[in-house]
Predict the 3D structure of the following.
Amino acid sequence: MSFGRSRVAGQGDAVAGPDDAIASAQRWRILAVLLVAIFMSLVGVSIVNVAIPSIQHGLDASDSDVQWVLSGYALTFGVVLVAGGRAGDLLGRGGLFIIGATIFTLASVAAGFAPGATSLNAARFVQGVGSGLLNPQGVGMIQQYFRGAERARAFGAFGSVVGVAVGIGPVIGGLLIELGGTQIGWRLTFLVNVPVGVLCIVLAFLWFPRPLLSRPRATDGRAAPGIWRSLDPVGSLLLGLAVLATMLPFVEGGSSPLFWLTLPAGLVLAWAWVRWERHHRATGGIPMVDLGIFSIRSFTQGSIIALLYFLGMTSIWVLVALYLQDGTGKSALQAGLVGVPSAILAALASGWAGRNVPRYGHTIIIGGLVLAFIGVASSIGVVLLQEGGHVSEWWLLLTLAFVGAAQGAVISPNQALALEEVPLAYAGSSGAVMQTGQRIGTSIGIAVITSVAFATLAVSSWAVAMAVSFGVILVVVLVALAVAIKDQRERRR
């Protein structure tokens, strides 16, 4: 298949079939269900950050146990994303969304009532599977049911939800721990997902178009020969193992140098996956990811921008939480409250960007990356001045607000523009490829940048450790900004 500009501008949306022709009111109801579920799954990541000390105390868990509470979710989430996205493309996104939401909700119940660290980590692994199934369906269904300016607004709403979820998760976690105490509070951070998940499942059954699941189709609409051949299980396994091997040494926390041996294995598996996908297509199969999507320059460069943004920026909130609690003695709730202005501005900026991205395009992303640079650089100034007693650490409320505005101006516009020319038949899997890059970037970024912070802390103060690690983030932001400017110039030509 050739994925040229003309292919996407006209025919790319035509392959989805008559189920796309739904009323405007139904489209927005579908979007509401998708956003609530995605909010739930993302809060499931950030809410746990502030609950780790309570989990360790409540279950008498080791440092390794609580590390896997975070890492297990991230691993299975990243491993399942692309296969889940492609399954939705072929079998029906609505049905896969409901399956993913059901798995996530049941795993939340298991996590909330876990009697020990091992059972909690098992539940978190399953939660990651559910999240990896439902998230790519959200991106795919936005591509499927929205067009033009409406699609940009839908992605703007998507970005608002991402911003609010990341910022508000620690606040909700802090409140629940305050209410429930160290024994019950951390369990509430998992059980709070259950009523939300049940509501999403019920509304999805009521509002999603029928059929929820369907027979696999080739990208030209013809019936595909055999479900397993259509789902490309060999390709799914190879890519899943490649992502697992790549992420493992970063999310595991470096407890053993042997884990770094999986990194070159991940590169070999990625090479094997590419060779298999080409072979599978050449022999008449339907690849899980048609590698032709990488010939679309806007998709490739948008994926690089997303990878770099998440590589640098997502570690900010981990560092800020550590700095405020360990460096300045603030509580978990106080540390969480610092992110509230950022979350509000992320939601507002994302909504504005969604309405205006058809008009301004990549200029919005470039402006967002400039705001990110300002926010990180000014935060360095605050922590250094705070150490000298010149300002309060609460000035971070202001400087990190720039980071929130940047998030709203970068994430959803970049996703909308990157997927603009991708054929609808690959909406789920291509969106999942971007999300997998984000997960890998997040894992590597948090591992590397927090390691820089702790290495600096061993010989200096928290303020200097923050300044050095934030300096690394500034370098990554500048690289992302260079890619965005290059992408804009190439689009103009």
Remarks:
- The chain is about 80% helix and 0% strand.
- The chain has two domains: 14-214+288-492, 232-287.
- The CA atoms of residues 249 and 256 lie 9 Å apart.
- The radius of gyration is 22 Å.
